[in-house]
């Protein structure tokens, strides 16, 4: 009897688990084809992060309105010196509206030597959801 009960539980979990996984995957998944930045302005490498030579990635989940304006943004991970500036800037951006009304972006902050005019942050969308933010190490000199 105990063996039948255990077998029944195993079979039941085998049927329920794929449904639960499918529901989790469809909830919150944003297709790459649904992510398109339309306007990206007002972005500067955070001054405190630049002064402390801080670089790295910030992952941001952005909630959109029906028109593609940013309704809200939250950092999912990243350095504490990079997060506030990233969120402030991305809240001014606009995106192609999508059915999920959601976008996930990864901001890759880099500091390079002699790369361009010091203090002039370069922001490039280099992939569907990858934004490269570059400034110069010599921006402080």
Describe the structure.
There is one protein chain. This protein folds into 2 domains: about 1-30; about 30-140, TonB (TolA/TonB C-terminal domain, 2-Layer Sandwich). It is built from 3 helices and 7 strands; from the N terminus they run H-E-H-E-E-H-E-E-E-E. The protein is elongated. The chain starts with a helix and ends in a 5-residue tail after the last strand. Strands 3-2-5-7-6 form a 5-stranded mixed sheet, covered by helices on one side. Strands 1-4 form a two-stranded antiparallel ribbon. With about 140 residues, it is α+β, with helices and mostly antiparallel strands.
SSE order and pairing:
Layout (H helix, E strand, L loop, with lengths): L1 H25 L10 E3 L7 H5 L4 E9 L5 E8 L5 H8 L3 E2 L6 E11 L9 E4 L4 E7 L5
Parallel strand pairs: 5-7
Antiparallel strand pairs: 1-4, 2-3, 2-5, 6-7
* Uncertain residue ranges: 1-26
Tell me the helix content: 25-40%
Strand content: 25-35%
Biggest sheet overview: 5 strands, mixed
Q: In which order are the strands of the major sheet placed?
A: 3-2-5-7-6
**Tally of separate domains:** 2
- The name of the CATH topology of the largest domain is TolA/TonB C-terminal domain
Termini Cα gap? 79 Å
CATH class of the largest domain: Alpha Beta
- Indicate the overall shape: elongated
Along the chain, the helix and strand elements come as: HEHEEHEEEE
Mean pLDDT metric? 76
Helix/strand/pairing category: alpha+beta
C-alpha-based Rg, rounded = 21 Å
- At the fourth level of CATH, the homologous superfamily of the largest domain is TonB
User: How many β-strand runs?
Assistant: 7
Number of helices: 3
CATH architecture of the largest domain: 2-Layer Sandwich
């Amino acid at each position: 009897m105990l063996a039948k009960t255990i077998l029944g539980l195993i079979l039941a979990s085998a049927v329920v688990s794929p449904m639960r996984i499918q529901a989790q995957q469809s909830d919150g998944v944003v297709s790459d084809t649904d992510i398109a930045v339309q306007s990206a302005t007002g972005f500067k490498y955070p001054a405190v992060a630049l002064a402390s030579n801080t670089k790295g990635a910030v992952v941001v989940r952005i909630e959109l309105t029906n028109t593609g304006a940013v309704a809200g943004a939250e950092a999912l991970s990243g350095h504490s010196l990079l997060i506030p500036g990233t969120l402030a800037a991305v809240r001014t951006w606009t995106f192609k509206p999508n059915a999920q009304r959601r976008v996930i972006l990864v901001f890759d902050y880099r500091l390079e030597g002699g790369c361009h005019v010091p203090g002039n942050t370069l922001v490039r969308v280099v992939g569907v959801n990858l934004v490269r933010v570059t400034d110069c190490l010599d921006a402080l000199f």
